[in-house]
Automatic annotation (TrEMBL):
InterPro entries: BRCT_dom (IPR001357), BRCT_dom_sf (IPR036420), Ribonucl_H (IPR013520), RNaseH-like_sf (IPR012337), RNaseH_sf (IPR036397). SUPFAM superfamilies: BRCT domain, Ribonuclease H-like. GO terms for cellular component: cytosol. The lineage of its organism: Bacteria, Pseudomonadati, Bacteroidota, Cytophagia, Cytophagales. Keywords: Plasmid. GO terms for molecular function: 3'-5' exonuclease activity; nucleic acid binding. Residues 204-283 form the BRCT domain. It comes from the Bacteria. This is BRCT domain-containing protein. The keyword Metal-binding does not apply. One of its GO terms (biological process) is DNA metabolic process.
Length: 290
């Protein structure tokens, strides 16, 4: 069971990171685990896991890149539990946003009728604040592929070691509004007026978004929503503020609107082909380099 501890000198611990297939915490599809003893990484474990029914949501797949074809022949969680349980049971478990990863572990074990072991827990997000990729950038920690579980677990281990050694000050980034308190959507950038009127006069049929219905949701990091909307409008996009069965692309930033994401899943299940496009891919399509 989960208990948070303040531990400064213990250099033996296990870091974990889970990726999930759908919104349910019991839908683990990838495990990353790192064991640290005496301040050194001594064991790494990475495994794709077949989630229940091998079912994925488009949103989760767009975050981590894993889909049903990747895991159709992978073991289910009970088949790998004996490989990782020795590094968890009775150990100090560390994660970045441990409330998520520990909840995934406990709910998955309960889903399969397996007992939940005793362990203590610490959280780099709770102790330091900030997003994992930003912390790695600030403190010189390699993060080869964010949202691939093993790389996140390795990065978390190295960040935690720096905290234990006093190289990162506790609470240093808890007040970082950009990293810790990004709201759902962005009411200040709500699109309205002429930007919502389709205009093909300046566009070419060869433009990527030509005559495509486009919706924005979430907060874009690299460009203001209104600027992004103007760029796709020049390509002939028909910009909407809500999802419909005829929507072609949904451009997503940080914390996309939950109701919009549910609508996408619903309409796609009914036969629509709505494509979720993350900010990086979107910037490439409109020729913006940041």
């Amino acid at each position: 069971m989960l208990t948070f501890e303040t531990i400064f000198i213990d250099m033996d611990f296990t870091t974990i990171d889970f990726e999930t297939a759908i919104g349910a915490r019991w839908s683990i599809c990838q495990v990353g685990l790192v064991r640290v003893e005496s301040g050194k990484i001594v064991h790494r474990y990475s495994q794709l896991v077949k989630p229940p029914k091998n079912e994925y949501s488009n949103w989760n797949t767009n975050v981590h890149g894993i889909h049903a074809l990747h895991t159709r022949n992978s073991p289910i969680f009970p088949e790998i539990w004996e490989d990782i349980s020795p590094y968890i049971e009775g150990q100090l478990l560390v994660a970045h946003n441990a409330m998520f990863d520990v909840d995934c572990l406990e709910k998955t074990l309960k889903y399969y009728g397996l007992p939940v072991p005793m362990f203590s827990c610490d959280c780099t997000l709770k102790r330091i604040g900030g997003k994992l990729d930003k912390l790695c950038e600030l403190y010189g920690v390699s993060l080869e592929n964010h949202h691939e579980a093993i790389f996140d677990a390795i990065a978390c281990a190295e960040i935690y070691l720096k905290l234990l050694k006093g190289e990162i000050e506790e609470g240093a980034h808890i007040s970082d509004k950009e990293d810790n308190r990004v709201p759902f959507g962005n009411s200040e950038e709500r699109l309205k007026g002429d930007i919502l009127k389709k205009d093909l006069s300046q566009a070419s049929p060869e433009d990527f978004f030509y005559d495509k219905k486009v919706v924005f949701t979430g907060v874009l990091k690299s460009i203001k929503r209104i600027d992004a909307a103007e760029l796709v409008k020049k390509q002939g996009a028909d910009i909407d503020t809500g999802i419909s069965k005829r929507t072609n692309y949904v451009i997503t930033g940080k914390k996309p609107g939950p109701s919009k994401m549910k609508q996408i899943e619903k309409y796609n299940a009914e036969g629509s082909e709505i494509i979720i496009m993350l900010e990086g891919e979107f910037l490439e399509k409109i020729g913006v380099h940041v």
